[in-house]
Amino acid sequence: MKRLLAFAVVAGLVFAAPARAAITSSSISTPGNGAELFYDGDNDAGSVTVRGTVAGASLGARGDLVCYTVSDTQLTRVVTGVDVSSGSFAINAPLSPIAGFACRLAMIPSGSTRTGAAAAAFAGPAVSVSDQFSHTASGSLYGYYILSGTLPWSFALQSLGECSVTGSYATDTSTLGSFALFAGNGCLPESSGTGAGRSALQIDGQNAYVPGAIPSLATQAGFEPLSYSAIFNPAHDVVGIGETDPAMGCDPPATFPPTSDSCPALHDAGIQVQQTTRLLPGGQVARVTDRFTSVDGHSHALDILFGQSVQAAASGKSPGFAFPGQTSLAAHGNPDTFASFPSSPSSIIVIGDASGFQPATSNPIGAITVNRPPGSATFTSARGAQMATFLMHYANTVPPGGSVVYDWSYSQASTLGALANLEPVERDRFGLPSVVISKPRDSSTVNASRVRVAGRARDAVGVASLSVSGRGVTVRAGGAFAATVSLRRGKNTIRAVATNVAGNSSGTAVSLTYKPLPPCKVPRLRGKTLSAAKRALRHAGCGLGRVKSARSRSVAKGRVISSRPGARARRAHGTKVALLLSRGR
Question: In this model, does residue 142 exceed pLDDT 80?
Fold first, then answer.
């Protein structure tokens, strides 16, 4: 019995489940802080290897991999019930729960909610997760959603009919709170938003639509899907998107809005739009180009209302705008209109909160830069709204087989100084610098082996660099420049190339013929009179130098005793020859 009892006690010690001690702290070593990850929503593909260590673990200890935002006050569980009993872990975690997030990874005790100060013991890297999803309706592709950028800066990009720039985000890297600025830009949706019963796009006076504007009509006869491709860099923080949107009209022309009843079929409107979107490195600038091309051999009249929206970060705040020529940011609302756009590329400066707060990550400042000036920009949102929307009106004609191009840049920053480094480049990328060489004249002939080149280099924003015959030259105030260039015998081309702040270059050139004069071959001058010596020197390509005199028993008075250099010496053309004249005995 004692043996049995003893056995029973021993057996109890062996088989009774021990209490699992919760881990007290943890640290994640992989991935690194600031890592940009990617989730492919079309294929539900995307994961990350997470490695780290824990403290306080015992047999059976488990943890949950979470991702924190907003100063660790909010969390999303990524993987639950991870075995951490060995004191370390290495798992392949899916990114689907945090696709599109900027958050901080951490391993916390399984089933717990450690937020705020309680999360400090569970260390981990801040990461951002770019993602991509295609949009289909009844099997027809009509759009996509792509989020890309860096931890501090990112853009959400969509198709033309869904809003090319559907969002932009400035993220505080210490709190991981994100703040929007652009909130639906370069849009051609179904409705114009004017309340006038028309679409955002009209072709030849009829309402027209790109696929992303009418996904509800994807089953109608004649619906044409869009096509697109997205190319990311290896880090997935830079992306280039190319899409093709066929423009469609209802057949027969229907009253607005189009429904499956009022628009039983669709027809090709004769216009195709090629949209190219590019997110630049750093995630602070997105560029959009919309090329409207006639594809039926006819000209087409375009009447377009491109939607642009800017959002304040907090409720009760309103965005501010400074249109070209304006010096202060102000809130706007319906029926405010601006119609004084310059003919050259220009920018609208925008800020999340117009009530006097300085730009910051929590109050981003940005610019909408346009190449082609609109006829007007009219606000459709109410004054004081958290999201301000205006429509940029364009009326242009696409020639037969030709195109009309609309270019946009969207820049975001946290300070005026940072925006000043971005916006001029975007404005300047639409133009080329001009270079003029005023001296020497083109097609001229020179006899010297070196020539002074002078001219002016100008640009709408600024000349970043200038080279003349491949050598850097300083551009002075007003654009003036000067340089000395060495020539080779025969024909020479002198080229001046200017580069503006956007990296665009242009140049000009002049042609010169370098024809050196014959060398000075000093003639025999002894015994010649001064006037005869001058003539002989001139014919020999030499010049007269200093003339001295001395007594001579062998040379008559007034005649040349000797020259320096002496007779038959060869020197450069025009070399001055010194003479010694006789004063007689």
Answer: yes
